[in-house]
Amino acid sequence: MKFNPDLIPVPVAAAAEDSSPGEAWEPPPLEAGSVTAQVVASVWRGERCVIVNSPPGGGKSRLLTHAAVWLALKAGLSVYVAAFTTAQQDALLARLAEIAPAGSVSKRTAHGPGHITVSTIAAAAYDAAKGDREFDVILVDEAYQLTVTDVMNAASGAEQIVLVGDPGQIGPVVTANTTAWDGMAVPPHTPSPTAFAKDAHLNPLILNLPDTWRFGTETVELLVPLYPFRFGTMASPPLIFDALGDVLPEIGQAAVATMGDLADLAVAHLGMALSTQPWGRRSTVASDVAVVVSRAAHERELLAMFGGMGHTDITVGTADKLQGGQWPVVIALDPIAGEETFGGHQTSMGRLVVMTSRHSARLTWAHSPAATTRLADEVGGLPTHVRRFLEAKPAFPSTLRSHTP
User: Fold this and answer.
1) Which of 349, 364, 376, 390 is nearest to 144 (CA)?
2) What Rg do the C-alpha atoms of the chain give, in angstroms?
3) What CATH number corresponds to the domain at position 147?
4) For a surface tag, which of 74, 105, 133, 389 has the fewest beta carbons within 10 Å of its beta carbon?
5) CB of 354 closer than 8 Å to CB of 319
6) Do residues 123 and 42 both lie within one domain?
7) Is residue 17 included in any domain, yes or no?
8) Residues whose CB falls within 8 Å of the CB of residue 45, separated by 6 or more in sequence, listed in order
């Protein structure tokens, strides 16, 4: 039976809040059977842990804010929303201000049932350690970028937890020596949803957001093999046009022999026609273009080149640095380019996902024929996710495809 949001009682305190004089406040619509509705229903009936997996652009922030409003202002729970960074915290506060009545949302300060508190995961852990606050439920954003230790520290004052995140992201950055935990079923640096999903006693409910609202079909076909669940697209992404006015495909590739070739490839995308909403067009400028690489040395070299060319507004960074960003045009340098070996850094699922999902209109995969030739005889096999990645899009990227046994 599908969850009916009308069955949630309206607390007296929430019903008294008005969005304007004489007009009763109403929460944002909650579609019966949607993932957001399932989250709300699961928490309301007492589910201890819910994990929501999302593709890139799947609507994580919308789910978090809408679920928080329904749980606090319609079900009367005390709700804590924990963000990964201060910028994400502020973005969630801004979204909540648009859909929740005045006075029902605060930054870090708790106000009890029927209220939403928002802070960073670090602040949540600090406050929990002091023991000065308790909540009915904590909703955690970008959960795959947080270790299970981070989340357990922050959630110690809550009875229920909802973890929302993208399993394709690069995982938590851990600088400590982790060899002491080798062999543990769930080391303390495990991404939090992965750890909670393995807890048989907790037995979390696991849900998947079904669509991306950012990418078109070509990008979805490229990304799906890298994910543990399938998803579709509801997006109408912007378009890039060539000099003849023809639409370029979302995904392209180009051979490069040097960093200079890569820089020239990025510059060649300046001045192209880019569609804008609703029906307009404009020319691409340097700030529309990003180059994503896997090594910091490549980043430094390209930054120096673009500086000398007068294109300092072109964004350059490693996959780790550019995770979370988005540009109309992205040039991604094949991780094996310039490498003598083909190891875990190059085949990391999170790195491949980030490098192939920073664009909104056009991704060009820059590959090195020399690297392909050098490594072709050295690679005896590839991780399963890389094989699926290549089989789904056999013409892309050609350098990695040549390594498939």
Assistant:
1) 349
2) 23
3) 3.40.50.300
4) 133
5) yes
6) yes
7) no
8) none
DSSP 113-154: TT-EEEEEHHHHHHHHHHT---EEEEEESSGGGSBHHHHHHH
Q: What's the structural domain count of the chain?
A: 2
Would you mind telling me the total number of residues written for the chain in this entry?
405
Q: Would you state the torsion angle of the CA atoms of residues 301, 343, 349, 366, taken in this order, to the nearest 10 degrees?
A: 40
288 shares its domain with 153? no
- List the pLDDT tens digit at each of the 405 positions of the chain: 344 455 454 443 333 344 444 468 889 999 999 999 999 999 999 999 999 999 999 999 999 999 999 999 999 999 999 999 999 999 999 999 999 999 999 998 877 899 999 999 999 999 888 876 789 999 999 999 999 999 999 998 899 999 999 999 988 877 777 777 788 888 888 999 999 999 888 899 999 999 999 999 999 988 988 899 999 999 999 999 988 899 999 998 888 989 999 999 999 999 999 998 777 999 999 999 999 998 999 999 999 999 999 999 999 999 999 998 999 999 999 887 777 666 666 667 888 899 999 999 999 989 877 765 555 444 444 555 555 555 554 444 443 443 332
Give the domain extent around 77.
35-174+187-209
